[in-house]
Amino acid sequence: MRTIIEPFRIKSVEPLRRTTPEQRAAILARAGYNLFLIPAADILIDLLTDSGTSAMSTEQWAAMMRGDESYAGSESYFRLKHAVEELTGFRHVIPTHQGRAAERILFACLCREGQVVPNNTHFDTTRANIEFTRAQALDLPMKEAADTQSRLPFKGGMDVEALERTIGERGAGRIPLIMLTVTNNSGGGQPVSMANIEAVSGVARRQGIPFYLDACRFAENAWFIKEREDGYGSWTPREIARKMFSLADGCTFSAKKDAFANIGGLLCTNDDVLARQEKDLLILTEGFPTYGGLAGRDLDAIAVGLDEVLQPDYLEYRIASTGYLGRHIADRGVPIVEPPGGHAIYIDAGRMLPHIPKHEFPAQSLAVALYRHAGIRSVEIGSVMFGGHARNELLRLAIPRRVYTQSHIDYVVEAILEVNERKHELKGYEITRQPEFLRHFSCEFRPL
Ligand code: F0G
């Protein structure tokens, strides 16, 4: 059979709530045209993020009931620790309430003013947490990624020559760690090849610099390696993931992505001294090291999710369904970051709306138009989110795991194609109010 089906059936349903275009126009004005500020009840299809929005399985819900809520040394912690050790091989497994808490603790321990942390592309919380320590967050994406239209198998990697040049110029002593984000979220959800992970790991080891994975979407990355990289076709996703982790000295992880959990994160390391410092900081803000700000039941949900996410049926369906959305809009003239990524499709709004300049936020304009037209929430990943660091003006349609069916995706395709037909009518925006950090979450706009 050629048809790839959702590898699950639905046991519990949640109604979708419809609004009219007139209601949505009023909702947008009230929210200052920032889709983060719209109540979820007013959204029909929510593609804001794939983070914390997964549907949990019956096995995960069953595991929740086994959650041990002991403050210290709960059974849930040991089940999670076992699952993570078995997958990653890391010696220290520290739970946190989500990925950014792991980042905050890691960077607080390692980073100082005057230092620089290279990554293929930092996610916004990673960048903000590094900059908060007054170190510099440096993006070194591979050059081929600059062309959003080229269809290369692994556009998410790091420019290894640029990494070596940076180490030469700044000195290894001023680089507290090197990171690779798999898949490369801010770089279009593109995968990183095993060859690139090996090359970056090799440079880091030769220079004595710790190497960390930002492993949020490690399973999706592993599937791309299986499908696209020579020599891995017969490997299981788990074997590929194990090899990826074996090349690193530690990882940060948001369990809200590739663990199907609604909350949670991990900080892992092989460094005994660092782990002690991290646990001290953890106690200050997150909780005792065996629960890290989570309930015992959350730890159990993550442990089960880490196993389910590596099932080949699931990963085949997941990557195919993202590709389905991408191909159906791109083949009808909507420019996307090619080829389709793992968790999301990124529309190249700069290319789609050349009449709206960067400083008038073309991707924000498209996000507003798509919500007004069809009740779909997406997110700007461009000059609103990254200011002057933005390389492209992208609109991300992130697909929650196991939540929407093919007919939902067909509706999204139709809506995007209809907005594309009247794209010349879309106008730019200006920001009227903004906070100091991570402005995209709360700033307000005015249509021009
Ligand atoms: N790293 C990457 C690559 C991410 O995509 C995210 C979150 C984080 C770190 C932080 O994890 O949210 O658990 O604190 N990304 C979400 C997104 C929010 O929508 O892409 P967190």
Describe this protein's structure.
The protein is 41% helix and 13% strand. The protein has helices spanning 21-30, 58-65, 75-88, 99-110, 124-132, 160-170, 194-207, 218-228, 237-246, 272-285, 296-308, 312-330, 349-352, 362-374, 383-386, 406-421, and strands spanning 45-46, 92-96, 116-119, 136-139, 178-181, 211-214, 250-254, 265-269, 344-348, 376-377, 379-381, 394-398, 429-433, 444-447. The strands form five sheets. A five-stranded mixed sheet has the order 2-8-7-6-5, sandwiched between helices. The termini are far apart. The mean pLDDT is 96. It binds ligand F0G. Ligand F0G binds at residues 49, 51, 98-100, 123, 125-126, 181, 185, 214, 216, 254, 256, 265, 398.
- Could you say which structural class the secondary elements and strand pairing correspond to? alpha/beta
Strand order of the largest sheet: 2-8-7-6-5
- CATH topology name of the largest domain: Aspartate Aminotransferase, domain 2
| Percentage of β-strand residues | 5-15%
State the fourth-level CATH superfamily of the largest domain.
Type I PLP-dependent aspartate aminotransferase-like (Major domain)
Could you give the order of the helices and strands?
Answer: HEHHEHEHEHEHEHHEEHHHEHHEEHEHEE
Mean pLDDT: 96
Q: Bound small molecules, which ones?
A: ligand F0G
State the distance separating the first and last CA atoms: 51 Å
| CATH class descriptor name of the largest domain | Alpha Beta
Q: How would you describe the shape?
A: globular
- For the record, the count of structural domains works out to 2
Number of helices: 16
CATH architecture label of the largest domain: 3-Layer(aba) Sandwich
Give Rg in angstroms: 21 Å
Which sheet architecture does the biggest sheet show?
5 strands, mixed
- Helix coverage percent: 40-55%
Counting DSSP E segments of at least 2 residues, the number of strands comes to 14
The parts where pLDDT drops under 50 for at least 5 residues are: none
